[in-house]
Amino acid sequence: MPHFIIECSQDILQQKTPDEIMDAVYESAESTGLFAVNDIKVRLQPYTYFRLGDQKKNFLHVFGYIMEGRSTEQKSHLSKQICTQLTALLPEASFLSVNISEFEAATYSNKALINPENKNQNRHFGL
Q1: Which of 4, 38, 51, 75 has the highest local Cβ count within 10 Å?
Q2: Quick one: which of 12, 14, 30 has its CA closest to 4?
Q3: DSSP character for 86?
Q4: Which residues of 43-71 are buried (b: 16+ CB within 10 A; e: fewer)?
Q5: Which of 52, 77, 69 is CA-nearest to residue 105?
Q6: Which InterPro entries match (predicted)?
């Protein structure tokens, strides 16, 4: 936790490499101090087929999923930090946006949480 999934048009990757884009998101998330560095996960999915409005040629959107418990101000700062970094990196992008959503702790599960040896329900158990 957190997970940042970047969706973009394929041609965005002609402007910057996937690593440059993912690093910008990772470093932005890290700079907020909201997450343990080892917990941040970033993925990128380019799209060949998409439809946009008139005169718009490409897009990039970041879906951020974080564990509940941060304030609206913290989530807003995170979103703006990522958007600012990506806007500087990709000034020619037609659409560039970020949204942050929360995982509900009560409905979240992972491999550590289902481990019978994890008596304290630590989601980082054994990692």
Answers
A1: 4
A2: 30
A3: H
A4: ebebeeeeeeeeeeebbbebbbbbbeebe
A5: 69
A6: 5-COMe_2-OHmuconate_Isoase, Tautomerase/MIF_sf
